Amino acid sequence: MFHLKWKYLDGDGDFRSEEVKRLRDEADIIVTNPPFSMFREFLAWILEADKKFLIIGNVNCITYKEVFPLIKDNKVWLGTGMGRWISGFAVPDDYELYGTEARINEDGKRIISTNNGLWLTNLEHGRRHEPMMLMTMRDNLRYSKRKQVRELGYQHYDNYDAIDVPFTECIPDDYKGVMGVPITFLDKYCPEQFEIIGMAKRGAGDPALRTKIYTKEEYTNYSDLNAGPVIIKNGIPKNTYPRILIKHKI
Ligand SMILES: C[S@@+](CC[C@H](N)C(=O)[O-])C[C@H]1O[C@@H](n2cnc3c(N)ncnc32)[C@H](O)[C@@H]1O
Question: What is the pTM of this model?
Answer without folding.
Answer: 0.82
